[in-house]
Amino acid sequence: MSQLDDQVSIRDTLNLKKVLIECQNLTHTYKRGGETLTVLSDLNLTIRQGDFVALMGPSGSGKTTLLNLLGGLDRVSSGVVRIQGVALDQLSESTLADWRAQTVGFIFQFYNLLPMLSALGNVELPLLLTKLNSKERRHRAQTALTIVGLTDRTKHKPSELSGGQQQRVAIARALVADPELLVCDEPTGDLDRDTADEILALLKMLNQQYGKTIVMVTHDPKAAEYASTLLHMDKGVLLSLRT
Amino acid sequence: MSSVGLVLANLRWKPTRTVLTFLSLVIAFVLFMLLRAISTAFTGGTTVAGVQRVMLDAKYSMTDNLPIAHINAIRMMPEVAAITQMSWFGGYYQDPKNEFAKAPVDHQTFFTVFPELLVEKDVLERFAESKRAVVVETGIAQRFGWQTGDVIPIKGDIWPKQDGSWDWEFVLAGTYTVPIDSRIQPWFLLRYDYFNESVMDWVKDQVGWAVVRVVDEIDPQQLIQTIDGQFEMSSDPTKSLSEDDYARQFASQLGDMALIATMILGAVFFTILLLTANVASLSFNERIVDLAVIKTLGFGNHYVGLLVLSEAMTLCVLGALTGVAISYGLEPLLQQNLVPIVGNFQMYLWDAVLALALAVAIGVVIGVHPAAAAVYLPIVEALREGQ
Ligand SMILES: Nc1ncnc2c1ncn2[C@@H]1O[C@H](COP(=O)(O)OP(=O)(O)OP(=O)(O)O)[C@@H](O)[C@H]1O
Ligand SMILES: [Mg+2]
Q1: What is the domain range of residue A150?
Q2: I want to staple A100 with a disulfide (CB 3.0 to 4.6 A). Which of A58, A105, B122, B298 is the partner?
Q3: Could you give the ipTM of this predicted complex?
Q4: Whole-structure pTM value
């Protein structure tokens, strides 16, 4: 890990960090009834490996839409999203699903844990898509839970956990398959100040120690301070505020 | 955690709902097995290949008797291979609740007329040796724990004895077995000669009915004409019917019952189908976000569809297996109570297989719609719904 850290910091200083995400002339429209609603228009964006990007902007400006496109949950209307050189619109539905499983971890405002599974079960779930056997899966899920600081209560159902604990479980689930990219949609939007700070510190740690690239939508200016890059979005147009 | 674990976790998640649905499936499948068994008992049973029989009765009323002289005359006819007379005997063993059919028969010919009944040679020998000997269907003997050689007291109620009493004492010569595929009802068989010499004079030399085994090459209809023709002008005219026609008459009545049973089953399963389909779509709607999350994690559309289908399928198949198991568990009890009424009654492996196939079909019918909806569930819209 320390060796890896060194490499990252060398690349950092030389500004040689590899490009992870590249969006070119991105346009996204929704059809509602007969009307076409353009949410993103001609958007260009580059995110490098190891970046921690905060994305702010008024409600309805298209932040979630952009995250969905970066995470391969939705397909662009026109333009290209390229991640690690892979143009997502070229992938078939099932290849895209495989790609998501390997490359992206998702963190939502309302955690979106499966209520019938324990914390451990929720974290183990993505590993069903790997070749690991059940013992390895369990071990790895436990490791992920340790990284996010949840060692007890792993047998509990989400409904028996606090919001902060649930979000830790969700982060462990996003982390467990060791993806390159973490996509977070208002991860602290439902938490109090102190808990929000803990979660943000955790994300920052994942970014710095584990080299995860993070794209985080937030309405909280304080949350944005944890990020290395701050983007502002309004009416589908991006402004870079700070790098 | 495994895919199977995920299916089971989903089923466990709403235990009350799952258990209620499961129980209604179990009840439906128990009902299925029972009604199938009863309807098989009613309509099943075929004549043994190569044996043709004719039943003959008093022409105007089944309750009228025929003179034994008729039987002796018929025995002489060249078309007749064997004939046995029979009568209702009535009475009971120890307690009026102990009901089973008893009949005086011609002990020399009865098992020739009914060659499909399974009886040991030594049993027949003992039947021939002693006038008080009886041969009893195995199930009846087992019911009362009778052993060969036991003295069986029977309290009569139709035929007064010479000595004015109603008490009969028989000795068990042995038992016979009715094969599964036979519709012959289980009997307690006593000897007509002993019966006839014991009863009061004014009821002597009468028989209730008779069964003729026809010589193989002869058309039973021809014999029927001969017999009924011969006694047409006598004081006791007869009415004969081939066993096939008799069975057909009987079956057409029972066929109606089988139809009713089938209709009940149809109604039950239709209700179950609506109920479980409703439960399936309810639980699908509750889990739209969960399913979208599972897709988000990288599980393919078909995995998620299969997950939903497996749930419905698991519930149906487990319900059927449990229902079938309970039916087999109830079998001895039901046999005890139903065999005296419907002849043979048992669960059939074939019906169990059918029940399982039905369960799979129901699983597909109720699961396929939510499964398809899960396959085509758009992630982004579904996640937005959860916000
Ligand atoms: N499936 C859809 N069909 C039609 N319109 C949609 C759909 N999804 C989003 N929109 C519209 O697109 C616009 C952008 O939505 P988006 O969710 O990306 O905004 P946002 O920036 O994430 O807002 P918020 O801060 O409230 O989460 C909104 O006007 C929204 O109503
Ligand atoms: Mg949003």
Answers
A1: 49-72+92-242
A2: B298
A3: 0.92
A4: 0.72
